[in-house]
Structures are given as structure tokens and as C-alpha cells.
Design goal:
The protein has about 200 residues and is mainly alpha-helical. The chain has one domain. About 90% of the residues lie in helices and about 0% in strands.
Length: about 200
């Protein structure tokens, strides 16, 4: 494999993994299943389709408009990197030592609002996206986003089977591992932001 292709594949894998961890579908599955288990299968799949579409549009808008909003507000990417790292760290710590942050905020029915935002496109995903645009550019970030959301859509559409396969304990273990990885990514973001700030 040529070096350029290897570098691109490695960058995509890095971007994909960071988004996968921030998305935390293993942690979302039991929550979504609990919210939607009383719905007929056709209605449940319709909710997933609509919610994934809303979540994807929200994420894409943030990808392409996030930096413009930053410029308008006078926020530098390094500021967002540190703040975003702190947010991700708090989310990860909440997942590790208590209830998942998104579970604490779920209200209402199993419709678009709790599923699309914040269960799917939440603060962790938005923070990761804006930082990846800065590092990898729009094309690779959007590709990693689409790949993750296709996987999320497939898993949520088959949530009953996946939840039975993983079991409550299996889903909980995967969620904790994802939270630990998210905490490591958050610390790396904060460290990088501080180093860049002091290097100026």
C-alpha cells in the first residue's frame, strides 16, 4: 500500500474511532430499547429512521457551520479544544462513576428529541466533529461521520436482537469501556490545547 494511502486510511480510522467512542451506541442501545419496547415494530423502526435523519442533519450543519459560528463569536479552535475536552471528560466520568449523562437527560416519549438529540448527536459528538474538521478536513470528517451513523442506524433498527445478544451486562461493560476511551481522548484534547496555548 502506498504511503499516502496508508496515511489516509490511518487518519480515517482515527477519525472513525473517536466518533464511534463519542457516539457510544453500546451505551445508547439499552436506553433506546427501554424507551421503545412498548411500540410496535413498524413504529419503532420509523422512529429510528426519522431520528437518525434529524441527528445526521444536525451533525452536518455543525460540521459546516461550526467554524463560522466560532469566528462570529470570536472563539478560537484551541479554546473549543480545551472546553470540549472538559465537557467530554465530565461526560466520561459521569458514565464511569454514575448514570450515563444522556440517560439523566432523557425525557418524554421515545420520539425524535431524546433519540436524535442528545442520545445520538450529543455534546460529545459535536465536540469531536469540530475538532476533526480542524485536524482532518471536511471530506474525511464527513466520511467518518456517515460510516458511524450507518452503523448506528443498523444497530438501533435491530436493537431488540442486539440487546439480547449483548445482554444488559454486556452492554454495560461496553459502555464503560467506551467511557474510559472517551476520558483518555478528552485528556489528550485538553493537554493538546494547553500545550498549543503556552507555545504561543
Amino acid at each position: 500500500m502506498p504511503w499516502a494511502e496508508f496515511t489516509s486510511a490511518k487518519a480515517f480510522l482515527t477519525a472513525f474511532t473517536a466518533l464511534f467512542v463519542a457516539l457510544d451506541i453500546p451505551g445508547t442501545l439499552p436506553i433506546y430499547f427501554g424507551l421503545s419496547k412498548s411500540l410496535p415494530e413498524k413504529r419503532r423502526r420509523s422512529v429510528v429512521d426519522t431520528s437518525m435523519a434529524v441527528a445526521l442533519v444536525t451533525a452536518l450543519l455543525f460540521v459546516f457551520l461550526g467554524q463560522a459560528i466560532f469566528r462570529f463569536l470570536g472563539i478560537q479552535v484551541v479554546d473549543f479544544r480545551i472546553a470540549g475536552g472538559l465537557v467530554l471528560l465530565l461526560i466520561a466520568l459521569a458514565d464511569l462513576v454514575g448514570k450515563p449523562e444522556h440517560e439523566n437527560r432523557v425525557t418524554g416519549s421515545s420520539g425524535i428529541v431524546p433519540l436524535a438529540v442528545p442520545l445520538i448527536t450529543g455534546p460529545g459528538v459535536l465536540t469531536t466533529l469540530i475538532l476533526q474538521v480542524e485536524v482532518f478536513g471536511y471530506g474525511l470528517t464527513v466520511a467518518a461521520l456517515l460510516a458511524n451513523y450507518v452503523i448506528a442506524w443498523l444497530l438501533l433498527r435491530n436493537s431488540e436482537g442486539m440487546f439480547k445478544l449483548l445482554g444488559k451486562d454486556g452492554a454495560a461493560v461496553l459502555s464503560k469501556l467506551a467511557a474510559l476511551l472517551l476520558a483518555a481522548i478528552a485528556v489528550s484534547m485538553i493537554r493538546g490545547g494547553l500545550l498549543e496555548t503556552f507555545a504561543r
